[in-house]
Design a protein that fits this description.
Immunoglobulin-like; signal; L-ascorbate oxidase homolog; copper ion binding; seven-stranded mixed beta sheet; binds 2-acetamido-2-deoxy-beta-D-glucopyranose; 546 residues; oxidoreductase activity; 3 domains; single chain; mainly beta; six-stranded mixed beta sheet; Cu-oxidase_fam
């Protein structure tokens, strides 16, 4: 466990500062302290020098190890010459959207300043990651793995692996992130990326050492900017065990499609002759295929990797769609709690609302933009959550994005959709474009009940999996296809719904879902953190005493 212990004095000071908050976020649960320094530094992932975003000198950043219900106290010092924020992909921030670290919830950490995130990984297990959410920082690093282990008394549906590896894969540009941002700011599209990284390194740069005969867990997250990636290990099978916090039916695959923003855990047994094997990662659904390699190294290896790396799947969408449909929840396995994951019968709950969301690309004022239901999101001058809390008018309007595609002309707005606390919602993502889309919702995990090619109609509901669909936080939508999800809106707050296709996200393909309860109660939502940064029109206000 990388519990980042600080000096006693610091620790005492921090404890005193946050003690009252801990009472609310769960003082009975253990907490872990992290002190992070975010800097620019030289990195050479594809052989050329680049400006990278380092955390405590590391690229990728350090992993966060935690156990269900842990409180994570992460003091982030921003040593960049510009504002910075981290967000936590898949961490649900229950009743606590203030800590979400996206533009609409949290003020940027000013250059030279620090901010302490106070998170709780409440009722969660599984594999996730963090990333920088502002500007185009994600193209420079600043990301790292998050793992939430089960509490000791909760059974895990497979034996303890001999080792547990974080594998962050993603497409990568040799260009500086500011250059990429400037291209987007000028209303142009980005060209195809230059390569693929595995844990921040290019071809043959990463190796994982295993002992023959033992079984290892690989937690694979696609932290890239746009491309779906296929992951495979030469000569080895992968047993899928977990998807974004859900223990899956343990199905064996020889390769796995990981769409941008998604996380998967597989078990791999080192059951082959003692030598080294390629790990291959390649782009999917692209005319030009980028491939990179890493190495699975047997500790008693007699031979280095040689020859061509293993090829990926050659058939396109149907193969991937069938694989996606084969990924199911193990209903009898425990999740974060001892009761089986199948004890919540999502398929029997009546839908209270259907929302259809269509992505589109187009131009507004001669510049490239991307939209959801014709609205291309633009930031306001104040985080929406703070405007809501301080009741500052004129920052956003609830209802500034329609529930259904209108087919109308694209326009800019600070789009916020209202939703009732405790509603049970069906969202249909409709993708009429030829790209592969990947959608993520903060604050929640949702059931991916169906996906198929063509146009969704109410009759498509007959194909839904209402029994053992996986619950996760990021789902793909295949080109000219739809994907349907169910969500129980049990988490009050302001939640970002965004594409994980990062240039599209940056140019407006996102909005906020404001899950609202008229009852102001800390049972439903925690008060604004005492240490919350205040910016824009919230500047100078005071965070109310607890
Ligand atoms: C962060 O790192 C930079 C560069 O090494 C150093 O100058 C600065 O003092 C560090 N800040 C903190 C808060 O540790
Ligand atoms: C900034 O860091 C110091 C310790 O280095 C800590 O005492 C203080 O609470 C932090 N400030 C915020 C706003 O988190
Ligand atoms: C499902 O979980 C149970 C309980 O841990 C386990 O015994 C079983 O092998 C799992 N089944 C599959 C198909 O993964
Ligand atoms: C990776 O290593 C193998 C074996 O040494 C070598 O044949 C191959 O060319 C290397 N690939 C790259 C891209 O460097
Ligand atoms: C769902 O709706 C049906 C018909 O309107 C109703 O009979 C049933 O009791 C409802 N089920 C639940 C769980 O509320």
């Amino acid at each position: 466990m990388s519990l980042n212990l600080m000096g006693g004095g610091d620790m005492w000071y921090l404890c005193a500062t946050i003690l009252s908050l801990l009472v609310i976020v769960g003082a009975e649960d253990p907490y872990r302290f992290f002190t992070w320094n975010v800097t620019y530094g030289d990195i050479y992932p594809l052989g050329v020098r680049q400006q990278g975003i380092l955390i405590n000198g590391q690229f990728p950043g350090p992993d966060i190890y935690s156990v269900t219900n842990n409180n994570l106290i992460i003091n982030v010092h921003n040593s960049l010459p510009e504002p910075f924020l981290l967000s936590w992909n898949g961490i649900q921030q229950r009743r606590n959207s203030y800590e979400d670290g996206v533009y609409g919830t949290t003020c940027p950490i000013p250059p030279g300043k620090n901010f302490t995130y106070i998170l709780q990984v409440k009722d969660q297990i599984g594999s996730f990651y963090y990333f920088p959410s502002l500007a185009f920082h994600k193209a420079a690093g600043g990301f790292g793995g998050i793992r939430i282990l089960s509490r000791p008394q909760i059974p895990v549906p497979f034996p303890d692996p001999a080792g547990d590896f974080t594998v962050l894969i993603g497409d990568w540009y040799k260009a500086n992130h500011k250059t990429l941002k400037a291209i987007l700011d000028n209303g142009k599209k980005l060209r195809f990326p230059d390569g693929i990284l595995i844990n921040g390194r290019g071809p043959n740069g990463t190796s994982f050492t295993v002992e023959q005969g033992k079984t290892y867990r690989f937690r694979i997250s696609n932290v890239g900017l746009q491309n779906s990636l296929n992951f495979r290990i030469q000569g080895h099978k992968m047993k899928l065990v977990e998807v974004e916090g859900t223990h899956t039916l343990q199905t064996t695959y020889s390769s796995l499609d990981v769409h941008v923003g998604q996380s998967y855990s597989v078990l791999v047994t080192a059951d082959q002759p003692a030598q080294d094997y390629y790990i291959a990662v390649s782009t999917r659904f692209t005319s030009q295929v980028l491939t990179t390699t890493g190495v699975l190294h047997y500790s008693n290896s007699a031979r280095r990797v040689s020859g061509p790396p293993p090829g990926g799947p050659t058939t396109e969408i149907d193969w991937s769609l069938n694989q996606a449909r084969s990924i199911r929840t193990n209903l009898t396995a425990s999740g974060p709690r001892p009761n089986p994951q199948g004890s919540y019968h999502y398929g029997l709950i009546n839908i209270t609302r259907t929302i259809r969301l269509a992505n589109s690309a187009g131009q507004v004022n001669g510049k490239q933009r991307y939209a959801v239901n014709s609205v291309s999101f633009i930031p306001a001058d104040t985080p929406l959550k703070l405007a809501d809390h301080f009741k500052i008018g004129g920052v956003f309007r609830v209802g500034s994005i329609p529930d259904n595609p209108t087919g109308g002309k694209m326009y800019l707005d600070t789009s916020v959709m209202g939703a009732d606390f405790r509603a049970f919602v069906e969202i249909v993502f409709e993708n009429k474009e030829s790209i592969l889309q990947s959608w993520h919702l903060d604050g929640y995990s949702f059931w991916v009940v169906g996906m198929n090619g063509g146009k969704w109609t109410p009759a498509s509901r007959n194909q839904y999996n209402l029994r053992d669909a996986v619950s996760r936080c990021t789902t793909q939508v295949y080109p000219r296809s739809w994907t349907a999800i169910y969500i129980a809106l049990d988490n009050v707050g302001m939640w970002n719904l965004r594409t994980e296709f990062w240039a599209r996200q940056y140019l407006g393909q996102q909005f906020y879902l404001r899950v609202y309860s008229p009852v102001e109660s800390i049972r439903d939502e925690y008060p604004i953190p005492k240490n919350a940064l205040l910016c824009g029109r919230a500047k100078g206000r005071t965070t109310r005493p607890l």
